[in-house]
Amino acid sequence: MNDWITGAVYVLGAVIALWSLVLVVRDELAQDRTFALLAIAEVVLLVQLVVGCILLAGTDRDVSGVLFVSYLVGIALALPIGAFWSLAERTRSGTGVLAIAALTVLALEVRLADIWSGGFGA
Q: What residue segments make up the domains of the chain, in order of their start?
């Protein structure tokens, strides 16, 4: 995978998770700035989806294509699902969902890197 995109996903995921946790502790709702940050992260995730598919098509690695692409799609869907849930649940819990969605992105990204490198279970 592309190291720049992977690094950007890690950084954005960590920033979103930490910011969401700060909002939960302060008992504040996610506002436009938070959703703008989510939108930026989503653009990076969509770029990762396209680049990942292109790299998969041109690689000689022993990578399970279906598993790899399903992780790419799953990562790209995690933040929008969390954002819609947060907008529907305008409470402290809704903001907590954003933190969980960002942590989910980070966990899936670690597994995606493992699949790409041909690690266990790939």
A: 3-116
